[in-house]
Write a structure and sequence with these properties.
Elements lengths: L1 E6 L10 H15 L3 E6 L19 H9 L3 E9 L2 E2 L1 H10 L18 E7 L5 H15 L8 E4 L16 H24 L8
Parallel strand pairs: 1-2, 1-3, 3-5, 5-6
Antiparallel strand pairs: 3-4
């Protein structure tokens, strides 16, 4: 089984990413279930605006799209800015939108029988809002969102320390992340054993 984590931090490599650090706890848990994990740092790529799988010369989304199709599990990891997902996360969701018109050999949307989860960091309240926005978009595209397939970290409203600067809340975020990983893996196994059929015409 394979998983893809798309880190939607605003910080290009090699800058330290708090979102990447929290994602590491979920990646470790997934690997503990025998899952192979790929990580994409979206801000490092030329992901052109649009809602097509390939937006032309220089567009690096097609390679990410192939990684999505090679995975049974997708995790979108985003910081919280102004109480909302990052602009990079929005760009990723817009590019995933192209999958709405793509089907497999059995006429199923290609996102069917794949599971997805959400991971959020930030030093302001709004994590549940970000989780809801991203989960809703992924569900629209056709991904299955298991119960409690998320984790987050923040220390409440207003300015404050970053995830890597303050140990408070780490144990809870890691425990929730382990539950997230377990729920994603077991839901993916269930769909593999009994796949969703194509939508009725």
């Amino acid at each position: 089984m394979r998983a893809l984590v798309v880190n939607c931090t605003l910080k290009p490599s090699p800058q330290t990413s708090n979102t990447e650090a929290l994602a590491g706890t979920v990646i470790t848990a997934l690997r503990g279930h025998g899952v192979e994990v790929d990580v994409v740092r979206a801000v490092d790529l030329n992901l052109r605006p649009g809602v097509e799988t390939d937006m032309g010369e220089g567009d690096e989304w097609p390679a990410v799209h192939e990684k999505v199709l090679a995975s049974e599990i997708l995790i979108i990891a985003s910081p919280t800015w102004l109480g909302r997902p990052s602009s990079v996360a929005q760009r990723v969701l817009e590019r995933l939108d192209a999958m709405l018109s793509e089907t497999d050999d059995e006429e199923r949307p290609v996102a069917y029988n794949r599971v997805a989860g959400v991971l959020v960091t930030g030093n302001e309240d709004g994590a549940h809002h970000v989780i809801s926005e991203i989960s809703g978009a992924l569900g629209d595209i056709g991904f299955t969102i298991p119960g409690q397939a998320w984790t987050y970290w923040h220390l409440g409203p207003g300015p404050g320390p970053d995830y890597l600067d303050d140990r408070r809340g780490h144990d809870w975020a890691a425990s929730t992340g382990r539950a997230m990983a377990s729920n994603l893996v077991h839901a993916a196994r269930a769909l593999n054993a009994m796949p969703l059929p194509a939508p009725p015409s």
